[in-house]
Structure formats: structure tokens, C-alpha cells
Amino acid sequence: MIFNVEKETLPRDELAALQLTRLKNQCERVYANVPFYRKAFDEIGVTPAQISSLADLPRLPFTEKQDLRDGYPYQMFAVPKDTIVRLHASSGTTGKATVVGHTQRDLDNWAEMMARSLAAAGLTSLDLIHNAFGYGLFTGGLGVHCGAERLGATVIPVSGGGTKRQVDLLRDFGATALTCTPSYALYLYDAAREAGVDIRELPLRVGVFGAEPWTDEMRADIERKLGISAVNVYGLSEVMGPGVAQECAVAKCGMHLYEDHFLPEIIDPVTGDVLPPGAVGELVLTTLTKEAVPLIRYRTRDLTSLDYTPCACGRTHVRITRILGRSDDMLIIRGVNVFPQQIEAILIDMEGISPHYEIEVSKAGNLDNLEIKVEFSEAMFVSDEVRHIQNREQRLQKAIKDYLGVTAKVRLVEPQSLRRFEGKSSRVRDLREKK
Ligand code: ADP
Ligand code: ZN
User: Fold this and answer.
1) Residues 233, 209: contact at Cβ < 8 Å?
2) Among protein residues, the one whose CA lies closest to atom 21 of ligand 1
3) Is pLDDT above 50 for 435?
4) Do residues 411 and 350 touch, judged by C-beta distance below 8 A?
5) Same structural domain for residues 112 and 210?
6) Is residue 173 located within the same domain as residue 63?
7) Number of structural domains, the chain?
8) Can you give the CATH number for the domain in which 29 is found?
9) Domain range for residue 241?
10) pLDDT at 155
11) Does residue 397 share a domain with residue 335?
12) Confidence of residue 433 (pLDDT cuts 50, 70, 90)
């Protein structure tokens, strides 16, 4: 079902016209109300009045995460404080957290976009949504919550943690949808098994997962284990929260980005040049309707590409492809660029291996050392196959060398021995000294 048929299927020329009007308006507002932007526009000699087409966008200054940190807590706000009705902060995965405010209209727009997302995932007002995204300053919990209410569904505000109890609730309440990080979905699966509950036999049928990078291989694994259809949701607190982009259940091929509210670009993260559709680079977002903290050309550091080809679901909004990783997550191992997700895809593809892994990079003399710990599956643990551990380790090492061109030491470890995550997973430990 399409939640907002008018906006989500707007012909692209009408969408562009709407974007231009809104872009001009946002530029006027930030120039008038946010000293940071007035200075940034003045420095490059651009005035909001000079924006006459969407093609003028690359003339505008970027906003970096550091700018938000420097403006901590309220300097990027474009409205008087008494119109702010809620504050949130980013999780601080990569450093000091940033603070964002929302006006009532911002919250209304957010709820609508999140409702669109849940509908695109295949949910309706008849669904019961077990929301295990963390509630609090983190945007995941409340973001999904308000979207679920807007859709008219029933939301169960479980939040993160208390995994054993979550299994009971899933079983007793009969939720039809689960929202959380993909790593937590797997954690729940493990906990359910331990409690003798087979999630596949419960009414659960849809999972909306996001807030961290994951792979198609991980999706297949989750869908099989939980017996559900799993789709990807993207968002970031600086720009809004969950519901900036959403994969549709019809095509499951990239996430529609709500272009009536956000203007996307892909840039080369090193030169800052805008790249053509299809090229992989850093996603840059300009908010078109944000009142409290509007952002011009915000560098998300998330790596993806734009797909403007028509989608089978009928939505006209561009799709961003699965997030490859954050530019700051990229590991350089002996000169080779490696993303943790590439390693994940290889691990999950191998039989007898569980999707739980940890990557550690250290330095031995001048050389980078890559060590990957991965749990073998329970099934392998109980069978004689354990004797073949060494053989598996070698096969994994070879696959990593063949696909990624780096040498890694792979160690298979016992089931349940690695850390589990209730929210965003943190699987990489880089022990090398940062420059
Ligand atoms: P933090 O940057 O501190 O983690 P947020 O809590 O706002 O801040 O999380 C937003 C970030 O989470 C995004 O910039 C992106 O890196 C990651 N993220 C969110 N959704 C997805 C997704 N579906 N796939 C991959 N990464 C995602
Ligand atoms: Zn679609």
C-alpha cells in the first residue's frame, strides 16, 4: 500500500518544481536565521536569491558533522527555542553526539514519512508492531513509534534490552511486525531458540530493520530464520531519524528517499565533486521542509548510489542502494580498502558459520594484521563437523583473499561466545594508532 499516493507517486517534473520552491525557501530561512549559514554563503559569494534552478545546488556550501558538533548544542537552530517541541541526539557512534530539535511540524512530517515507510514495508492499520528500537535521545524508538501510530497500526513500545522478556512478548502479544537493528533481530532469534520458541511459528511476518549497515546475505539469513519478509529502513538523526528512505516490499531493491522532503546528491568523498546517477559515493542531503534545524548539503558520510530507474511499486522517488558503509568505517589493510560489510557477506555465505563476527585490526611491526573471529553454528557444534574447523578457517581465509585481496587470520569460535548487541552493533576493533 502507498500511504501518501499523491506525494509518493508525483511525476518527476512536478517533484522537481516542488523541490525548487522548497529549496529556495530553505536557503532564505537559513541565511536569515542561522549565522553559520550566512557566513558560509557569504564566504563563497552566493545569495539565496541566486538559486534559480536545482542545478544551482552544487554552488551551495556543504555542512559537515563537525559543523554540528561545533554548534553544540543550539547554534544551528533556525527557529526561536519556544517553538521547539522535542530534542534528540545522534548515537555518537563516531564521536561526540550532535543535538537536533524539532518543531511540531517537523514531528508531523517525520511521523508521516515513517508511516509511508511502514506501509511500503507491507504494513497496514491491522498490524501489531513490536518496536525494539531504543527509546530515548536515539531517534529509532520514537521515530518508528510515531510513524506506526500515524499508520493507525498498534505499536508495542518495547524499546531495547530485556531480550528474554522480548521473546515472551513476541509470543504472547502476537506481533506481526518487528522493528529493530538487523543484529538485534538475530539476537532475538538466538534468545527465542534458547527459550524453545520458534519465531517462524508465531504470527510475525515482516521485519523493518536499519540503523546500521547490513548485507543482502544477512537479509536472507534473517528471513529464513525468522520466517519473515525483511526490508531496509534508513535515516539519521541530524537530518530527521528513521524514515528518510525505505525499501519497498514489492521490489526490495534499494530504498525510496522521500524527495519531497530531502534533496539527495552523491559526491566523491575526497574531492567533493558531484557524481552522476549510479556512481557510488557519499550521500549528501539537503532538507527541504525542516523548520528547526534545516541543513544545506549535509555530508552524511554514508556510501551509496542513486537509482532513478522506475520501480515496480509505482513510487517515483529515487532509490538509494543499500548503504555500503560509512566512509569512516573503511579499513585500509596493507593498502587495500575493505568495508566490514564485504567481510560479512563472505562469512554469512559459508555453511556452518553463524552471522556473529568480530574484526580486529592491529599492527605487527609495519604490517597491518587483520583477524576475524566468527562463531560456528550450533548445528556444526553438536555434529562431528567440529573436527573440520581448521579446514573451514582455511576456506574462509582463502575466500577473503580471493574476493577482497587481503590476508586475514580467521578463527572460528564457539557459539554464543562473541558479544551481542541490543542496538547498533560494533564489530570492528582497530587497535592501530590513528594518525
Ligand atoms: P550515529 O551516526 O551516531 O550512529 P544516528 O543514530 O543518527 O547517529 O544513526 C545514523 C546512521 O546510522 C547513519 O548515518 C548510517 O550510518 C547508519 N544507518 C542508519 N540506517 C542504516 C541502514 N539502513 N543501513 C546502513 N546504515 C544505516
Ligand atoms: Zn519501490
Assistant:
1) yes
2) 211
3) no
4) no
5) yes
6) yes
7) 2
8) 3.40.50.12780
9) 1-327
10) 98
11) yes
12) low
Measured in Å, residue 106 CA sits from the centre of ligand 2 at 25
Ligand 1: atom nearest CA of 322 is 24
Q: Assign 93 a pLDDT band (cuts: 50, 70, 90).
A: confident
Decide which of 261, 293, 327 is a domain's last residue. Answer: 327
Q: Do 393 and 287 fall into the same domain?
A: no
Nearest-CA residue for ligand 1 atom 24 is 213
CB count within 10 Å of CB 287 equals: 25
Ligand 1 proximal residues by C-beta, below 6 Å: 90-94, 138-139, 210-213, 232-237, 300, 302, 323, 326
Residue to mutate (ligand 1; options 64, 110, 179, 212; most atoms within 8 A of CB)? 212
pLDDT tens for 195-218 read: 999 999 999 999 999 999 999 999
* Percent of the chain residues past pLDDT 70, beyond the cut: 98
| pLDDT tens, residue by residue, 22-77 | 999 999 999 999 999 999 999 999 999 999 999 999 999 999 999 999 999 999 99
Looking at the CA of residue 65, tell me the nearest atom of ligand 1.
Answer: 2
The string over 385-418, giving b where at least 16 C-beta atoms fall within 10 Å of a residue's C-beta and e elsewhere, is beeeeeebbeebeebbeeebebebebebbebeee
Atom of ligand 1 nearest to the CA of 92: 3
- What is the DSSP code string of 304-339? E-EE-S--TT---S-EE----EEGGG-EEETTEEE-
Domain termination site, one of 279, 305, 327: 327
Residue given cell 534545516 in the structure block = 294
> Residue 344 is part of a domain; what is its CATH number?
3.30.300.30
Q: Separation of 405 CA from ligand 1 center, angstroms?
A: 28
pLDDT of 17 over the 60 cut: yes
